Amino acid sequence: MKKIAVLISGGGTNLQSIIDAVEAGKIKGEIRLVISNKEDAYGLERARKHNICAVFDNDEASIIDRLKSEEIDLVVLAGFLKILSSNFTRAFENKIINIHPSLIPAFCGKGYYGLKVHQSAVDYGVKVSGATVHFVDENADTGPIISQETVKVLPDDTAEILQKRVLEVEHRILPMVVSKFCDNKIIVEGRKVFIEE
Ligand code: GRF
């Protein structure tokens, strides 16, 4: 059983998708810890409702200490709006994953979070967008890509409508990747990542 920590800053619908998959027996791991860098993040409530230890912590050194003392195998950034230092990413190399609501390398990087991502996609006029799960390195959204899935961008889409459509995909691919990670089925070769059946 892998020990999973989920880092959040907000509502935590992606966290919920992992909780649900664990409870349904689809992930061979347990969520040991949920950490939010925002005290009022609703995701903390979601975790507590499922008896998962959930804490507010906005200090990177202290977060690293907590993850180490719990011997965490996988750190999932699920709407965690802080870029990690290289100190953090090196301590957990190829053990931190992030979900981003666009097809990286489009509409990503510093400042691209929340509705801004979807507004940029709508304004640019792209015909497809989607979601990406990737490993985290010390730069924003640049680590090796693990999984991507597309959604259509329709002519009348607003950023809010597109966000909803992309979230459905996020809630599918994030638990899938977590599950594969826990099964040791994710192989990293440089920038290329392979998921075994
Ligand atoms: C999601 O769109 C995720 O891709 C992005 O932040 C949002 C978090 O949503 N990184 P939630 O808190 O999981 O509902």
TrEMBL record:
One Pfam family recorded for the sequence: Formyl_trans_N
Binding site for (6R)-10-formyltetrahydrofolate: L81, K82, I83, L84, N98
SUPFAM superfamilies, per database record: Formyltransferase
Keywords for the protein's UniProt record, in alphabetical order: Purine biosynthesis, Transferase
Catalytic activity from the UniProt record: N(1)-(5-phospho-beta-D-ribosyl)glycinamide + (6R)-10-formyltetrahydrofolate = N(2)-formyl-N(1)-(5-phospho-beta-D-ribosyl)glycinamide + (6S)-5,6,7,8-tetrahydrofolate + H(+)
Record site feature (Raises pKa of active site His), residues: D141
GO molecular function term, any single one: phosphoribosylglycinamide formyltransferase activity
Catalytic residues (UniProt): H100 (proton donor)
Domain Formyl transferase N-terminal: 2-178
PANTHER family in UniProt: PHOSPHORIBOSYLGLYCINAMIDE FORMYLTRANSFERASE
Protein role: Catalyzes the transfer of a formyl group from 10-formyltetrahydrofolate to 5-phospho-ribosyl-glycinamide (GAR), producing 5-phospho-ribosyl-N-formylglycinamide (FGAR) and tetrahydrofolate.
Family indicated by similarity: Belongs to the GART family.
Protein name (Swiss-Prot/TrEMBL): Phosphoribosylglycinamide formyltransferase
Natural source organism: Peptostreptococcus russellii
Gene this chain is encoded by: purN
